[in-house]
Design brief:
Chain lengths: ~525, ~80
């Protein structure tokens, strides 16, 4: 997420065309891609909640998240150098495990992007609300009431713009964004009310792990460096260096921001969603809060646009491989964008906003899906080392197999901690949404594999069963039985439903059987 | 020929009706969820049984719509 360069639609359909040397970028360009993709809206949305979980341990929580991410980035580097193809996690899982796991990796990446876009839209509204509170103090409450509605309108507009095709976000924005943070850090040092404890206390360790799970999403954007490997000069040397340097810079930046925030906020009351604005106000005055709000809004808009493009590329890639209907690959006649995929993805994002999902839950859901993708990438490294030992590996993950195993263990721990130790409602609902959508994606995979006519026969059987069940209920109601569920529904309506369902079931079975045999 | 035409008409009619039933079930589920016009008390749905009612309506609605579309697709 964050300020990543927009995915060119030709990438997802076309072959891996080799770029000329002049078009490739060096180490600095690769670092900029990593930083640009990682520094984004997430820090505005998750920092407040992470602080409420970890308190003084927030600095350590961010350091831990960066470290776990770095371990998996070594696996990314190995896979990227050994398999220099487009498709990222999807291609790696396909090479290691085959179709189903690859589909899972693609599906999880898509899920992460959907949740991330919805999260970014809400962060935009929160920052807009903060800005309006300063300009027109009375309007803030109204904004908070309509947070999800405004976020949904933003998705609608950006979805429409994505159909027209959005232009790339330049690194100029990344530099501006870095400048805001550096200004905040420089002015914040020495102004703090308290000196934060960098190392967490034992009794607060569960809160620190939970905060790591919530803030993990802040680092995952660095994988863009790996994805951009085909456009990098000497990728075998430059990509690992770029990943390492990007991660070190990111960890240093986020930990310092967290340190300054913790020191200036102290024990004061603040609104969780605008913690960073509050801290900036403390260090730079009202202008600081406004600068952070504008930065947050720009980052959110850029992230939503990027996410919609990335989702479309994932969906188109999976349609190309026959997992999703081919209609999703259809390009707009005038703009050349995959408008069907953009509309379908935007509808999924809107669904979560309409259902009233909160920023914290969406942020965790995005983290949850990303963490699972990271675990799959680490597993792919292990599997490929075992199954294809002679595969040429210009780069190898250091300390194998310790790094991928630690990466997997830490990922699984991050998934479990917020729910098991903290009993966090946000995490529980986020996991429920993720599993529901993942169930839908897996059902699509299996239905696709089963084939249309077998599916029709199965559906006919279900219709038949539903019809007989409705008929049974109608008979029982006639005899005076009062069902617990929808007791006021008249029996004649059930009889009508039962006749139609039985007829539809029989017809579907007959037509399906005729086509099968 | 007439028999074929009658068969097609039947398939379309059943497909359309089943899809309409499915859509109605989903709309009813939404109305129940948002409790428009106090429909929960009108239909005698207790708050404890609301989730299971919504689940049954959603699942049956989804299957009905899909089954109906399959029949229409055949046409």
């Amino acid at each position: 997420m964050g300020f990543s360069s927009s995915t060119n639609i030709k990438e997802l359909i076309g072959a891996d065309a080799q770029l000329k040397k002049g078009e490739k970028h060096g180490l600095f360009g690769a670092i900029m891609i990593g930083l640009g993709s990682a520094i984004g809206f997430e820090i505005f949305g998750q920092l407040g909640y992470a602080y409420s979980l970890a308190q003084g341990g927030m600095v350590f929580a961010l350091f831990l998240g960066g470290l776990i991410c770095l371990l998996t980035m070594f696996s990314y580097s190995e896979l990227c150098a050994a398999l220099p193809v487009r498709g990222g996690e999807y291609s790696y899982a396909k090479a290691a495990f085959g179709g189903f796991t690859a589909f899972m990796a693609g599906g999880l990446r898509w899920l992460s992007s959907i949740f991330g876009a919805a999260f970014a839209a809400i962060v935009f509204t929160q920052q807009l609300s903060y800005l309006l509170m300063i300009l027109f103090p009375l309007d803030q409450n109204q904004m908070l009431v309509y947070t999800n509605l405004i976020a949904a309108i933003l998705i609608f507009i950006l979805g429409a713009l994505s159909v027209r095709g959005v232009k790339e976000i330049t690194t100029l924005l990344v530099v501006a964004f870095l400048a805001i943070f550096i200004l905040f850090i420089v002015s914040g040092f020495g102004q703090g009310q308290v000196v934060p404890e960098v190392l967490p206390r034992f009794e607060g360790i569960s809160g620190v792990f939970a905060a790591t799970a919530y803030t993990f999403i802040m680092f995952v954007g660095v994988r863009a460096t790996v994805v951009a490997a085909p456009e990098t000069e000497n990728p075998e040397k430059n990509i690992p260096k770029a990943i390492f340097l990007s991660m070190i810079l990111l960890i240093a930046l986020y930990c310092t921001v967290a340190y300054v925030t913790t020191s200036v906020v102290g024990q004061e009351d603040f609104v969780e969603s605008t913690l960073l604005n509050f801290a900036a106000e403390k260090t730079l005055g009202l202008l600081g809060g406004v600068l952070v709000a504008i930065g947050g809004m720009v980052a959110s808009i850029s992230s939503v646009s990027t996410a919609i493009t990335v989702q479309s590329s994932i969906v188109c890639g999976m349609s190309r491989d026959g997992y999703f209907p081919k209609v999703l690959m259809k390009l707009h006649g005038r703009f050349g964008t995959p408008h069907v995929a953009v509309i379908v993805n935007s509808l999924f994002i809107l669904l979560f906003l309409i259902l009233g999902a909160g920023a914290v839950g969406l942020g965790y859901a995005a983290s949850f899906a990303s963490i699972l993708v990271f675990a799959l990438v680490n597993l792919s490294v292990i599997k490929l080392r075992e199954s294809k030992p002679r595969l040429e590996r210009p780069l190898k993950a250091p300390f194998y197999p310790i790094t991928p195993i630690i990466g997997i263990s830490m990922s699984l721990m991050l998934l479990a901690v917020p729910v098991l130790l903290e009993g966090d409602v946000n995490a529980e609902s986020a996991i429920l949404w993720s599993l529901s959508l993942m169930g839908l994606v897996l059902a699509t995979y299996h239905l696709r594999m089963v084939g249309f006519h077998r599916l029709r026969v199965a559906l006919g059987g279900i219709s038949l069963g539903m019809g007989f069940f409705a008929a049974l209920f109608a008979c029982l109601m006639e005899k005076g039985f009062k069902p617990l569920i929808l007791p006021q529904v008249p029996p004649y309506m059930l009889v009508f439903v039962s006749i139609v369902s039985i007829l539809a079931g029989v017809l579907n079975i007959l037509i399906g059987m005729r086509k099968l045999f | 020929m007439t028999q074929m035409k009658a068969k097609r008409t039947l398939v379309v009619a059943v497909g359309l009706t089943q899809s309409a039933i499915g859509m109605s079930a989903l709309i009813l589920a939404c109305i129940l969820y948002f409790n428009f016009l106090h429909i929960q008390s009108l239909l005698g749905v207790s708050p404890e049984l609301l989730p299971i009612s919504l689940l049954i309506l959603s699942i049956s609605g989804f299957f009905s719509i899909t089954g109906g579309f399959f029949l229409l697709h055949e046409h």
